[in-house]
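Quick note —
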Amino acid sequence: MTRRRTLVFAAAMIGTAAVIAIPAAPAHANAPCKAGYECIHWYYSNAQYTTLVGSTYLFCNGTSSTIGEVTGYVRVENDECG
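Predicted structure written out below.
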């Protein structure tokens, strides 16, 4: 009985370690702009937001343009449509 508990515990620990070792992928979806606004999403290489690596412009007419790399580290600017 003790050996079985040890094996179950070891298997649970290995499974837990495997789950912890796999980082979650950052979300890449752009948040929609509010009506009457255009948005610029600035993408950075890390959580410290030190290196800009790309951007997406969401224009007032509903179109968009992406330049560079899209990451999960994003800051958003909004500007009213003129």
